[in-house]
Amino acid sequence: KVNSYVNAVHELSEIMSFDFSKALSNVHKSLTDSSKAHSKSISTDTLARLTELVESLKKEKHQRLLKLQGLGRTMQELWNLMETPMDKRRRFYDFSSLLSVPADDALEKGCLSLDIVREAEDEVKRLNALKSSKMKELVFKKQRELEEICRGVQMDVNSDAARQSLVDLIDSGDCDLSDILASIDDQIEKAKEEALSRKEILDKVDKWRQAKDEEKWLDDYEKDENRFSAVRGAHKNLKRAEKARSLISKIPAMLDGLTTKVKAWEKERGVPFLCDKQPLLQTLEDDIVMRAQREEEKRQFREQKRLQGQLATEKEAKYGSKSAKKKPLGQSLNTDN
């Protein structure tokens, strides 16, 4: 039984890197005497003290393991928080194998030494010191990421007000910086989901706006009286005009499709779809009304031209063409002759 306890102390000494001989000597000097002059003490007192030593060392092993596991988890959180490069984490990789190890499992030699514990404590202290200095920088980095996501899909965001609010919150000390970061991360995730839901509509808005730009170009082009003249690039403009007319003919269908999509989006979320800080649905409806007015004006203009042509034809039929030539003076006399 004494040998069993001695072996247990030896195993624990290797795991926790303490002086095996000194530990046994404190129990009874005969336990470390390598000479055969004295036999090992196997008294009841020695057994009791060995039992106490082994239990104490097992408890110490358990405490060190729990401490290193806690330090390891803290390190990982701080590394992830501050985006520490992998090469800076490498020397602590052995800690990762201890994070889920039960206390009774066999452990590697020296993995629970006091030097290892102190090294882990020093790393956590270093990271905590960096945390306070870099946390504000991380908060604003995350805020910029959030703003970029919002701007990318034209979501309304007041950058100046949001940043000033963050500054006031941090300076007040009423909120932990980790909580602020967690809150911004939640906002980023929600913004990404919102951006995905807006992308299809915004892609259609881009196509509609491109068609409107071509429509404006075609209006200006058709007002140019020299557009058919043999100038450089005239054939390219003719081809562009042909494509523009085809694209413009699709604008009413684009507007109908967009309006349907926006109404469905707003019904699902209960908020207006903003584009360039304006309700998109109102913009689409205004364009539909304006387009109808323009078509009516064109129809009235064509009708007016048709009526003018019709009046001119009726007048010509009744009074003759103004361009008809009159007979020359004296024509009948010349004929008689």
UniProtKB/TrEMBL annotation:
GO biological process per UniProt: microtubule cytoskeleton organization
Basic and acidic residues composition-biased segments: 295-306
Family annotation (Pfam families): MAP65_ASE1 (PF03999)
Keywords from the named record: Coiled coil, Cytoplasm, Cytoskeleton, Microtubule
Region: Disordered, residue numbers: 295-337
UniProt GO MF annotations: microtubule binding
Compartments reported by the entry: Cytoplasm, Cytoskeleton
GO cellular component, one term: spindle
Name used for this protein in its record: 65-kDa microtubule-associated protein 5
Lineage of the species this protein comes from: Eukaryota, Viridiplantae, Streptophyta, Embryophyta, Tracheophyta
